[in-house]
Amino acid sequence: MNSDLTRRGALGSALALAACGPRANGQPAPQGPVTPLRDLAPFPIGTCVQAGFLDDPAYAALTSQTFSQLTAEWEMKMEYIVLPDGGFRFDRPDRIAGFARNHGMKLFGHALVWYAQQPDAFVRLDESRTSFGRAYDNYITACVGRYRGQASGWDVVNEPIRDDGSALRDHLWSQRLGPIDHMVRAFHVARAADPEAVLFINDYNLESNPAKLDQYLRLIDALLKAGAPLTGVGCQTHCNADLPTGALTRTIRALARFGLKVHVSEIDVSIVRAGGWFVSREEKLAAQARLYAEALAAFVALPEAQQFAFTIWGVRDPDSWLVRENASDTPLLFDGQGRPKQTYRALERVLRG
Ligand code: G3I
Asked: Distance between CA 248 and CA 291 in Å, rounded?
């Protein structure tokens, strides 16, 4: 038997054993053995990782056993890649890409152009559009070209809409290269660097802010009309446990209207950020599991050709950006000991149909 099957079998039983133990955080233990999500889903089930986490054997095993696609949580963004002198470093992105390749996992590129990343090396460039544009194109080409043939897709434009949904964000990239032009340009340069990758736009709070969703849909329409090779629509889906039932379904359906690939790209469900109307923690946890299930059911209901990937934003609760913000949050599928929670069970049930 090949080592992969041996490893997966051993880990499958580890997951099964883990699924029966008591819960440190008081959650009901899912009954019976759990099946790796990657073995149940006909499409990629993703998660985000940090290169350093992959050195932990338990984390590496749980991640490769459960998921079939990796997104770099932050190390494939400008904040890591662009050096103060304008050079690039790809050591950690390559580590993540190598891990994905060695474990039969896809790689998803996140994120090329983002208002939140404006490295000094770009800010310092003189105002001339030409030199700035050349550096912009060079960065996109370097990143997308490096993982050509491995990255299944890229978030080319991340979070373009203002939080209140009133307009496009204003930032270094839009100021130097134009509010829409900088996006169209990024898509064309990314396409030239990789003819196959699915090229995404990506944003958050689309399920909780109708104005933002409307503005996002208008932008997608405008970019397509402008000839941008936009071929995927991302819905980050960072939501709170008090999100009303149906919001995720309506949003994912609305995003699918263009017939493009759809990526639920960063789902997590915060307990702590949820409002106080729940009567107990158990009720909040049940609502959280229902929201995971609703998002996946809405994704599974899409035409197969539009199902790009379903990505959870982290592996174990302590790995989550939300838990770094508030240690009492439990937003993900596995607890701190790597045991599957009822959120995991909820996704498993959807995938089992
Ligand atoms: O690991 C280093 C540590 O060694 C160093 O001492 C410390 C201070 O410099 O930085 C640490 O890296 C931080 C990293 O998170 C890991 O914790 C980076 O500074 C920090 O910028 C990075 O934040 C990430 C953030 O995006 C910005 O890139 C979060 O992990 C990540 O979860 C978050 O993810 C975003 C998506 O990209 C877009 N959608 C929203 C989502 C949540 O904010």
From this structure: 8
CATH topology (fold) of 3-351 = TIM Barrel (3.20.20)
Domain boundaries, the chain: 3-351
In angstroms, the CA 327 to CA 303 distance is: 38
- Pocket lining: 77 vs ligand 1, CB cutoff 6 Å: yes
Nearest CA to ligand 1 atom 16: 74
Q: What is the reported pTM?
A: 0.93
* 320 in contact with ligand 1, CB cutoff 6 A: no
DSSP-derived pairing of the beta strands 238-240 and 261-270: parallel
Tens of pLDDT along the chain (353 residues) come to 344 444 444 444 445 434 434 444 545 555 678 899 999 999 999 999 999 999 999 999 999 999 999 999 999 999 999 999 999 999 999 999 999 999 999 999 999 999 999 999 999 887 677 889 999 999 999 999 999 999 999 999 999 999 999 999 999 999 999 999 999 999 999 999 999 999 999 999 999 999 999 999 999 999 999 999 999 999 999 999 999 999 999 999 999 999 999 999 999 999 999 987 777 889 999 999 999 999 999 999 999 999 999 999 999 999 999 999 999 999 999 999 999 999 999 999 999 99
Residue 206: helix, strand or coil by DSSP? coil
